[in-house]
Amino acid sequence: MDLMNSLNVDEKVILVAHSFGGLAISKAMELFHDKVHMAIFVTALMPGPTFNFTFLSKGLVRWQAPLLDMKFIFGDGPNNPPTLSIGGPLFLSLNMYDLSPREDVELAGALVRPQRLFSNENIDTSLVLTPERYGSVNRIFVVSEKGKTLMKEFQLWMIKNNPPNHVEHIQDSDHMVMISRPLDLGDRLLSLAKKFA
Predict the structure, then answer these.
(1) Which of 2, 58, 116, 148 shows the greatest Cβ crowding within 10 Å of its Cβ?
(2) Across the chain, how many H-helices and E-strands are there?
(3) Where is the AB hydrolase-1 domain (predicted)?
């Protein structure tokens, strides 16, 4: 949010998010709606004013890929919810990078880090979106047709429940669209920037 704070009054940005990054740009849209030209959700979580994270998480559970060798860390003790998760080699190669080049899968495995987990309640409390602010920003959703982490059915369900201004579909892409279809995604982003100029 520091970057958004540092922008001059007459400067506007295009925000692009992937996966759970959709939550972060949604918050930026709410706080800095006058500084955001458009927000592009690339197979990303896309909450809305009447579509909070608790509601989103119900869809996530319904269309969830098998967790395979995903590991959970219980930093607050075994009787409390997990505090961190980390994708194992099977989860990464079969659910996230299944259409990506092998060397990128290997690199991802070497660089993978634990991801902090928050309760639905914590996210809903800190991410309150309004039609006047969040809703005033152009939203574009890019569907990954063959994504398994956020399955196509889940992506379409989000779009139906929180319609964006425009939808793009990328064929033959896994969850990591920027790795499996980088040129296609880059072309789409440039085209969208021109279309919504």
Answers:
(1) 148
(2) 9, 7
(3) 10-184
Beta bridge partners, 167, equal 141
> For residue 33, which amino acid is it?
H
Contact (CB, 8 A) for 166 and 175: no
Q: What is the pLDDT of residues 24-70, one digit of tens each?
A: 999 999 999 999 999 999 999 999 999 999 999 999 999 989 999 99
Q: Report CA-CA distances (Å) from 115 to 9, 43, 67, 78, 136.
A: 34, 18, 14, 18, 31
pTM of the model: 0.94
- Inter-CA distances, 161 with 9, 139, 156, 178, Å: 32, 14, 9, 25
Contacts by 122-127 with C-beta closer than 8 Å and gap 24+?
A: 123/23, 123/52, 123/53, 123/54, 124/52, 124/53, 124/54, 126/27, 127/23, 127/26, 127/27, 127/30, 127/47, 127/52, 127/53
User: Dihedral of the CA atoms 21, 23, 28, 33 (nearest 10)?
Assistant: 120
pLDDT in tens, 65-87: 999 999 999 999 999 999 999 99
CB 42 within 8 A of CB 134: no
Domains of the chain: 2-65+119-195 (3.40.50.1820)
Most distant CA pair in the chain: distance in Å?
Answer: 52
Q: Judging by DSSP bridges, how do beta strands 71-73 and 166-170 pair with one another?
A: unpaired
Q: Are 134 and 109 in contact (CB under 8 A)?
A: no
